[in-house]
Amino acid sequence: MLTFLIFFLLLFAAQLAYLQLARRYGIVDNPNARSSHSQQTIRGGGLVFVLAVILSWIAGYLSMWVSLAVVLVGAVSLADDMRGLPQWPRLAAHLIASLALVLEWQQQASFSLGWIPLILFLVIGWINLFNFMDGINGITVAYALVALGTFYWVPDLRDDRDWILLVGLSCLVFAWFNFRKKARVFAGDVGSVSMALILGYLMVKIILLTGNPWYLFFFSLYGVDAVLTLLIRLRRKENLFQPHRSHLYQFLANEKKLPHRLVSLSYAGLQLGINWLWMEGIGLDTFSWLPGLVFTAGLVGVYLLVRFWATPTEPLQQASKR
């Protein structure tokens, strides 16, 4: 316990130091028409997640391949936060990091090499999905804490509990500065991308160990919001590479004027309830198609109803041109 207290204090001191450096060198996020905030805010505070991974490796809690993968995407994403990068170095970093995780998974569970392209597609897709969902105060850290807490209690991941706890402590440190009415710091790409890789690693690992894909429902709220928003934007023939405010959580925070922290807690709380339902109610010991399909249909139906209520009557792309 003393070891983790020392780690917590180190992470807190590192976060304070980063705030000073970012303020000095102008690593800030400036609000624009697509933003959900109205004041200049320091970005890149999610660097503390990467530091937690480095400390986990130093302490012997985490393997070299996973640590290097997180450090790689974290370094490239931090450079993007500081001065902006073309898309290709970011995607290259995501691909290389995902390949490093494949090497780690191969040592933990045997699977056919034919699955590697699908795994890479899912991991890189998840990284970008998680990054897109980082748009209001507290949503990334609250959702990450729920995911990490759930993985901590999964029996098949008991060997990962020490480093999961350490990354969770880094989330608490970041939340102190971010989970506020007016956040002092945003996670930035370095935070959302590195956390996405951490969670993606744990998700693929538990699926490979158990053979049960329904563990994916631990990410179901982010999944349904991101995927259905993408489909809606495709239907509207929007440019998918341009920033937008079309996710349900953005409608709730911006158009319905709900407090950011309330929306963030709602996403995290609902996801926690879903995780509990699958772990303690439906059960994940065995795989069956029926409960997963029924749950998916119900979740999509509820999501569409809430989205219909929250969606502004005037298309956002028209309003933003005024």
Question: In words, what does this structure look like?
Answer:
This protein is an all-alpha fold. It has one domain (2-319). Helices cover 70% and strands 1% of the residues. The chain is built from 13 helices and two strands, in the order H-E-E-H-H-H-H-H-H-H-H-H-H-H-H. It has helices at 2-25, 47-58, 64-83, 87-108, 116-132, 139-153, 161-178, 188-210, 220-235, 248-255, 260-282, 289-310, 316-319; strands at residues 28-29, 41-42. It has a two-stranded antiparallel sheet with strand order 1-2. Helix 4 runs parallel beside helix 8. The radius of gyration is 19 Å and the shape is globular. It starts with a helix and ends with a helix.
Kindly state the mean pLDDT as a whole number?
A: 91
Secondary-structure class: mainly alpha
Strand order of the largest sheet: 1-2
Strand content: under 5%
Which sequence of SSEs, written as H and E, runs from N to C? HEEHHHHHHHHHHHH
Number of extended strands: 2
Tally the helices. 13
List key phrases describing it.
322 residues; mainly alpha; 13 helices; 70% helix; 1% strand; globular; phosphotransferase activity, for other substituted phosphate groups
Give the topology.
Blueprint: H1 2-25, E1 28-29, E2 41-42, H2 47-58, H3 64-83, H4 87-108, H5 116-132, H6 139-153, H7 161-178, H8 188-210, H9 220-235, H10 248-255, H11 260-282, H12 289-310, H13 316-319
Antiparallel strand pairs: 1-2
Helix pairs in contact: 1-2, 1-7, 2-3, 2-7, 2-8, 3-4, 3-8, 4-5, 4-8, 5-8, 6-7, 6-8, 6-11
Compact overview of the structure:
InterPro entries: Glycosyl_transferase_4. This protein has 322 residues and is mainly alpha-helical. It has one domain.
